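Deliverable D2.4 — example input (structure tokens):
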């Protein structure tokens, strides 16, 4: 699994996860200069690169995923961060991402 953190996560989250899980492929949308991309093109890029998106966007991403699947397309996988975790609580996001990667990081999350 390779992870891309959506734009609502600061680069510091990516850096902290890298320190906690050296060698794991996690990138920030900011570092890839993909900020502001619409969901459909972003999902296309992620699919092409085999990357799983970590996001809070439960409003639009699911609709785009369903559209891709109904058109016979795949996606790189999606991990949704719970709304119960405040957006400004980076420590909790980091802790949960590290736990998730240690438990599931070798799995293929495509589709």
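Example output (designed residues):
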């Amino acid at each position: 699994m390779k992870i891309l953190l959506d734009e609502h996560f600061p680069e510091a989250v990516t850096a902290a996860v890298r320190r906690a899980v050296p060698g794991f492929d996690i990138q920030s949308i900011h570092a890839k200069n993909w900020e502001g991309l619409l969901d459909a093109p972003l999902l296309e890029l992620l699919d092409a690169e085999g990357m799983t998106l970590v996001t809070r966007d439960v409003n639009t991403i699911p609709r785009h995923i369903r559209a891709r699947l109904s058109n016979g397309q795949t996606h790189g996988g999606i991990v949704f961060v719970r709304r119960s975790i405040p957006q400004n609580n980076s420590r909790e996001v980091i802790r949960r991402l590290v736990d998730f990667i240690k438990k599931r990081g070798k799995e293929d999350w495509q589709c």
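The chain has a mean pLDDT of 93.
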